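Q: My labmate handed me this sequence with no annotations at all. I'd like to see what the chain might look like in three dimensions before we decide whether it's worth expressing. Could you predict it?
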Amino acid sequence: MGRGGRLAIAGLLLLAIAVGGCGNGGRGGEGWGLRSDRGGAIELEFWTMQLQPKFTPYFERLIGEFEQQNPSVAVRWIDVPWAAMERKMLTAVLGGTAPDVANLNPNFAARLAARGAWLNLAAVVPEATRSRYLDKIWRASDLEGETFAVPWYLTTRVTIYNQGILAAAGLTAPPATYGELAIAARTIRERTGKYAIFATFVPGDSAEVLESMVQMGMVLVDDRGRAAFNTPAGRAAFAYWVDLYKEGLLPPEVLTQGHRRAIELYQAGELALVASSPEFINAIATNAPTVAAQSQAAPQIVGETGQRSVAVMNLTVPKGTDHPEAAVKFALFVTNNDNQLAFAREANVLPSTGAALAELSAELGRSRAAGQGVEATLLRSRQIAAEQLTEARPLLPPIRGIQNLQKILYENLQAAMLGEKTIDQALADAEADWNER
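A: Here is what I predict for the chain of 437 residues:
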């Protein structure tokens, strides 16, 4: 990547015209003529997060196809360890050495978007192309009227449950809502002595509880980024978890141990339900085959909003790229229907385009019909995950400091669970802490 370029108005117009000619092809690219911004060969630098070496053959094929269809372009692929990506990307963006296309999660990408780091894709990707992607997933990368990323692959949790524990408690189906979960938690505890769920309140661990409160109707922040959770809906969400804890329906270590403890308890046969990715079925089969034989999958538990959570991986294009047209073309090529479907099959993730998702869901249904035992459970889990994406969206806003907001809410929620604060005081303190940060 050239290091000094900035995108001019004329360049944006040329890019919009070029993208406007996109076809709806598969691996053949987006169908618009590629030119060299500098009158010669183009080299694009493409960063991904911890996908080597497992997916090296896939990306070598993908890049080879793109280069064959676009002979004036060479793509240099660099895979960055997950733990190092934010530091390396921030350094690169601030130093003017960012890659031309980068694989990032929405929260970190949004932090840099607030600094004007990314090309506004809303200005250059036409509606016909944008409409291929799931609408809620595309809009998750909107910030202050601009779109800072193209959606790539998705993951979502399902509910994995132990049929034996439910049967011992006299339950014929897992809870589908948080209201049903509270009832099931009491029944399971009373009749079996086991816990229904483990949800961690450790501030730096899983965001599952934070997302659950959004599902229950809590709004985290308003349009100005100020606290919006000290409301009746926010109070009800706090009260839900406080009541479960005070009634002894949550393991006491939810205050001190992370999501890993939920995995341990489930595999030990001491937990009825766990929220996890479909691939957890494989881990259970390896570590606890007896529990795996009793395990089945159901859709993610929902609250009053009916919304389900999804995690998104995006592709961003820096404003400073010297090759905006080539970079956007490559990002759209990587995320087109055929390539998303191919990667979903390869990596057991979910695609963010409607056509690829529909085809994958149909494939999983056909495979599940022929599967048996743990394999059938795994395929059912994957199919459920694919089907629930129609109601899924990233539940946490792409705002700077979302981890700090989680910390503030969890610490005050813990105080209410322990009886150190009333729910009203905990919410008021959390509101003040966030607004005064």
